[in-house]
Amino acid sequence: MAADLPRTAALEVLRAVRSSDAYTNLALPAALRRHGLSGRDAAFATELASGTIRRQGLYDAVLAACIDRPLAKVQARVLDALRLGTHQLLAMRVPPHAAIATTVSLVRSDVGPGAAGFANAVLRRVTEHDLDAWVELVAPDPADDRHGYLSVAHAHPRWVVDELARALGERAAPELEALLAADNEAPGVTLVARPGRSTRDELPGEQTRWSPYGVHLESGDPGSVPAVADGRAGVQDEGSQLVALALSAASVDGRDERWLDLCAGPGGKAALLAAIASGRGAGLVANERQVHRARLVAGALRGSSGVLGLVVADGTRPPYPAGSFDRVLVDAPCTGLGALRRRPEARWRRQPGDLRTLVPLQRALLSSALDLVRAGGVVLYATCSPVLAETAEVVSSVLGERHDVTLEDAAALLPGVPDCDGPLPGTFQLWPHRHRTDAMFGALLRRQ
């Protein structure tokens, strides 16, 4: 039986993520184009690749129960295919015979007949139970270890479950499982109309609840939307739109002419801010340290009239005079644990030790931004992570070192957004399970 193109494309994505540290959201479109997939075939390949990567931890636990040797001893190329087959058997509406036959065919053509026979035997063992039964068999007893159970059942590393519970605080008990389940849902595509360049009436789909510029694309390729193809609109989660809107809505004392996005890559927030700034007679400087990300920013800003410049520079040692900006956005590099719906590989790639590197960088970037904003101006510190070490603790640490800064009420800048209070008074925290957005955190600081 010949291996079909959607499954071949999905397998290529898994291998790129595993062996080359590729990002699913970048590897997947490339694989779809390479195999000429569209419509239902593209949707099938997308769910197969993304769903398998999201639930990899759970599927590995199932496969470990079906194989008589450690998974580390299984050839990596075979294990990738077994994960794809397991996802089809346990979480997709694929008949078992089709899931097994196509997976075996992939292994036979890629590795050989011996490995194909092994894959056939393993997947037949997987069919002995459904997903819920497998969870009960391979996960800890929730009465003894609730976080351990949720870690396996919802395919999140244990340390991530612990950090998300800390971030939820007193609401962890009733909401933690809903948050983990939301992380495993396939995200929709949200578009943003860049004001002054397009309107959301031009964009197909249902209007977003809180951003006045967004729509949820119901189906199809966003690149086929004329405003997106022209750069007058873009793809951007509503949570990211709200971050840019919060900074633009804050009051400043005196002039309001020069805005800065200190960590601008890949450019979505910079493009929205530049469009808003242009409508007010202001302009934006986009700063990005990494050259390849700066190229993405340049693409996002193409055609915008509200751009004062694009600079490749380290945000912790910026080439700008102190006090030279009226508004500054610090969308800091972070673990990305607030965007696990969109970046399914992040949960398996990130490690607790990453915080030891990221947190000092986040503090340095926020301190730098506060030096760059003038008295009476504002800085919005944002992360796509709800982890307290990256949110409340960074802000509290910087505030404790400076006497020229006050923490303002950023949550008030998101009128109508319910239940978004953050871990510090005045900060905001969005959540996938509450707001159907990425888990964006925001804190507004004013230079005195």
Summarize the structure.
The chain has 448 residues and is α/β, with parallel strands linked by helices.
Structure description:
Residues 165-448 form the SAM-dependent MTase RsmB/NOP-type domain. Keywords: Methyltransferase, RNA-binding, S-adenosyl-L-methionine, Transferase. It holds the Pfam family Methyltr_RsmB-F. The protein is an alpha/beta fold. The chain folds into 3 domains: 5-131, Orthogonal Bundle (N-utilizing Substance Protein B Homolog, Chain A), CATH 1.10.940.10; 148-183, no CATH class; 237-447, Vaccinia Virus protein VP39 (Rossmann fold, 3-Layer(aba) Sandwich). Helix content is 48%, strand content 13%. Strands 5, 6, 7, 8, 9, 10, 11 and 12 form an 8-stranded mixed β-sheet that branches. Strands 2-3-1-4 form a 4-stranded antiparallel β-sheet. β2 (206-207) and β3 form a beta hairpin. α4 (56-66) crosses α5 (76-91). The termini are far apart. The model has no long low-confidence stretch (mean pLDDT 96).
